[in-house]
């Protein structure tokens, strides 16, 4: 089942997993060691992240290593960028208002 990438980042545990593996590829056991939850719960989160194509798996011998799929993360960044532009405009407007108020109070 293909899931939406925003379902993946909606959960704080999945966001923490993304942050964790953004530093280096990790096995499911290594990821699970960083959480106060069962290995099965972490596996479910990994499954959702994989279904959203935010993670890629690489088999090395018997181990599976999960790493971040950068291109999918760019989709999130692209969506957020529209809001960054709005926020920048509004913060610049706020700066102008505050500068005007500061000038008028002198």
Order of helices and strands: HHHHEEH
Strand residues, percent: 5-15%
Tally the helices: what do you get? 5
Structural class: mainly alpha
Helix content class: 55-70%
* Gross morphology: elongated
* Termini Cα gap: 63 Å
Weakly predicted, low-confidence segments:
none
Sketch the major β-sheet: 2 strands, antiparallel
Number of β-strand runs: 2
Compute the CA-based radius of gyration: 20 Å
What is the oligomer described by this structure?
A: single chain
Q: Going across the major beta sheet, what is the strand order? A: 1-2
**What is the residue-averaged pLDDT?**
92
Short description:
The protein is mainly alpha-helical and 106 residues long. It has helices at 5-9, 12-21, 28-32, 39-51, 70-104, and strands at residues 55-60, 63-68. The mean pLDDT is 92.
Describe it.
Helices cover 64% and strands 11% of the residues. A two-stranded antiparallel sheet has the order 1-2. The chain has 5 helices and 2 strands, in the order H-H-H-H-E-E-H. The longest helix has 35 residues, at 70-104.
